[in-house]
């Protein structure tokens, strides 16, 4: 975030990419299997 603000202070356009789906185990378009023990 600090780097983004530094670039913006020079009037540069900044795009920040964020990974979505990590909270439901579906990041990067792939489903991850959860294995339970026992």
What's a quick, concise take on this entry?
This protein is mainly alpha-helical and 38 residues long. The chain has one helix at residues 2-9.
Task: Offer a few descriptive terms.
38 residues; 1 helix; elongated
Beta strand %: under 5%
User: Count of helices?
Assistant: 1
Estimate percent helicity.
Answer: 10-25%
Main beta-sheet strand count, sense and barrel state: none
Average residue pLDDT: 74
Unreliable spans:
none
Shape: elongated
Structural class: mainly alpha
What is the succession of H and E elements? H
Question: N- to C-terminal separation?
Answer: 42 Å
Give me the Rg, rounded.
Answer: 17 Å
How many strands? 0
Secondary structure elements and their pairing?
Blueprint: H1 2-9
Q: What features would you describe in this structure?
A:
- With 38 residues, this protein is an all-alpha fold.
- It is 21% helix and 0% strand.
- The radius of gyration is 17 Å and the shape is elongated.
């Amino acid at each position: 975030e600090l780097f983004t603000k530094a670039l913006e202070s020079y009037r540069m356009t900044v795009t920040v990419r964020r990974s979505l789906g990590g909270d439901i185990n579906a990041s990067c378009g792939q489903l991850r299997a959860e294995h339970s023990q026992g």
